[in-house]
Amino acid sequence: MNKVILMGRLTRDPEVRYTQSGKVVCQFTLAVDRFTTNQEGQREADFVPIVVWGKVGELCGNSLTKGQRALVDGRLQIRSYEAKDGSGKRWVTEVIANSVQFLDRKAGGAGTHEQGASKGEMESFGSPVAFDEEIPF
Predict the structure, then answer these.
(1) Which pTM was predicted?
(2) Mean pLDDT across the stretch 51-62?
(3) Does residue 19 lie in a domain region?
(4) Burial zone of 74 (CB within 10 Å; 0-12 exposed, 13-18 middle, 19+ buried)
(5) Residue 63 has pLDDT above 90, yes or no
(6) What integer pLDDT is reported at residue 131 of this predicted model?
């Protein structure tokens, strides 16, 4: 089974392109913290290339920006190609995403979380309960 789940921050804005056949492809790099720390006590990170195809890729390109957190579910792919300068084979390791969840809101506007309700939808559930009041259940 080939399944990868990663949570991290985008290192730059996503790049969206279209193939010659018209398919949408979005690429970005996710900085994923390691569990361990280095000798100075700082967390190190791995920088993982992510590729998202189709409608989800288009949504990522329109909604994600540098620094935002994302949760990616996909598969690991290792491929090779011949270098254009003739210097030999090059290897690429990347994650092909099946789904992407946006964990942060876009600065200065509407939320980009795929699952969830907007503030207006939440207000229809009644008045908020203050923290110092007892909840009646």
Answers:
(1) 0.73
(2) 95
(3) yes
(4) buried
(5) yes
(6) 52
